[in-house]
Amino acid sequence: MAQALDVDETLIDAVCTRLREHLNGDDAGRAEAFARQYYRWVAPEDVAERRDLDLYGAALAHFDLARKREPGSTKLRVYNPEFEIHGWESPHTAVEVVTDDMPFLIDSLGMELNRQGFGVFVIIHPVIQVRRDAEGNLLEVLPHGAEAEGTLAESVIHAEVARQTDPKELQQLRDHLMRVIDEVRAAVTDWQAMRAQVLDVVAQLGTDPPPLDHDEVTETRAFLTWLEDQNFIFLG
Question: Phi first, then psi: what are they for 205, rounded to 5°?
């Protein structure tokens, strides 16, 4: 296992060397911090057959997508990478996402890809802490595990699926994935409000109960309190 990890680290170092050669100053530092987290948890076998040039190109392409994003929005790209156009290549169709980190996101996207019949060959999903300005421009990529006031946790998702060549199929895939992300965002946004509403009902049952049997009201309050105490997933 140690040998596989060494090979993986060597590939990441090669990617970062190319980034420093291609970019300048703070941009190079941000791109390197991005790439090191991008490939941090990738299984060695998923990249063992990849050229470091393609790993570099994929990381740079996704970094470019992440350069500007307003909070609450999603950047999503679906394309067939070609070296002459995108700086890297793959026999698969690539899906790139940058969005706010949210529960259920990666599972929901995976289920949608399976539902649509797209075989998934590779998936990369780091959660990266970043700092952006008021216009959404990327200012800083924090090291793994670091947190600071005014930063955002963003889900960066790279998936490679069975290659699609029909532009309509590519657009439909993008539309399906965007719909799922919007649905996850709506559910997550509603989740806290629904939990708060449950607590309001519990309080109301205590101060102004309906004309029911006392034991029934007590049981209802206990049940709602139990649900809110992380024993139920509230989906809007």
Answer: -65, -25
- Model confidence over 154-190: pLDDT tens digits? 999 999 999 999 999 999 999 999 999 999 998 887 7
Q: What is the pLDDT of residue 2?
A: 39
Q: How far apart, in Å, are the Cα atoms of 14 and each of 6, 8, 140, 160, 172?
A: 12, 10, 22, 22, 36
Tell me the Ramachandran region of residue 148: left when phi exceeds 0, alpha when psi lies from -120 to 50, beta otherwise: beta
98 Cβ partners below 8 Å, 6+ apart?
A: 62, 65, 66, 69, 74, 75, 76, 154, 155, 156, 157
* Dist CA 144 CA 14 (whole Å): 19
Give the mean pLDDT of 42-49: 82
User: What is the model's pTM?
Assistant: 0.80
Sequence-distant (6+) residues with CB within 8 A of 17 are: none
What is the DSSP-derived secondary structure letter of residue 68? Answer: B
Structure tokens at 30: 């941000």
